[in-house]
């Protein structure tokens, strides 16, 4: 599999702010403040409840290289949130897209006997065994985003709703085409990395949502979460289909290349839905002049929530909004649809591609 973690480029300060606000809502009884577009630096952790200093812990962190916006946002959100707590010693290892290098880095954290480990694997299947080594050594693992197949390899999983992304995109496209009275539409799908389970879940949700309108995907191709691939794939698809009604692009980072190809081809007879919720995609939506009309969220704020959950687990605490004494075994974030009508509210949470 070619560079299985390449996913996304750089982060605006607003994404860090948004991450802190979202994660606070997960772990505290205090209502989360609405993020301000003007905010540019992470705020201090609010006093009270689970955010009060507790037992000192050491938290290991490993993720892929930040060569795309979404992954860069993951790393920055994690660092910023960990820095809010005086009781957390944050130990990130060198980010890498090399499977063996990530395994070695995680092994170094196990040897260092960290209190808890937050791990976003390049590939859940290939890092499953080293995650299991951590849990067998008594180190709870918070599995972020790409899931390990063995539930014994992690204490808690937190991530986006990949199937829900597809469903949201499918309903937006299906409903709009049905309202326009379009019969037998040409619907194109540009995936991320086709071999990843998360991509397969997105495609499954998309196909099943479209089916409720009597529609199906006309052509599907993957772009590896890369800008240049997005450009090449979109160019090929547009050349192969002289008329298109709608496109769903799984990833706003590769969408930079997709949009460039669309503009180069001079095509605008269709509308497009993106995926993840990048700031540049939101600005395209906000302009009202782009074929990009919506994007469905897969927010890197999940990294901030993972840090907060890992801290609670290591300190033996539960989530104060829940009755149960321990953090849940899995948390799936909702995929929300961003359109011109609500984009101003989501823009502070965006990451730069």
Overview of this protein structure:
- The protein is an alpha/beta fold and 353 residues long.
- The protein folds into two domains: 13-160 and 300-333, Response regulator (Rossmann fold, 3-Layer(aba) Sandwich); 162-297, Rossmann fold (3-Layer(aba) Sandwich), CATH 3.40.50.2300.
- The chain has helices spanning 13-27, 69-82, 99-111, 124-136, 162-179, 197-211, 227-240, 252-265, 279-287, 302-314, 343-346; strands spanning 57-62, 88-92, 116-119, 141-144, 156-160, 187-191, 219-222, 246-249, 271-276, 292-297, 330-333, 337-338.
- Strands 2-1-3-4-5-11 form a six-stranded parallel beta sheet, with helices on both faces.
- It is elongated and about 60 Å long.
For the structure shown, list the relevant keywords.
six-stranded mixed beta sheet, six-stranded parallel beta sheet, elongated, 40% helix, Rossmann fold, 12 strands, alpha/beta, 353 residues
Number of self-contained structural domains: 2
Looking at CATH, the homologous superfamily of the largest domain is: Response regulator
Secondary-structure-based class equals alpha/beta
Got a strand count? 12
Helix content: 40-55%
The fold-level CATH name of the largest domain is Rossmann fold
As a whole number of angstroms, the C-alpha radius of gyration is 20 Å
Quickly describe the structure.
This protein has 353 residues and is an alpha/beta fold. 40% of the residues lie in helices and 16% in strands.
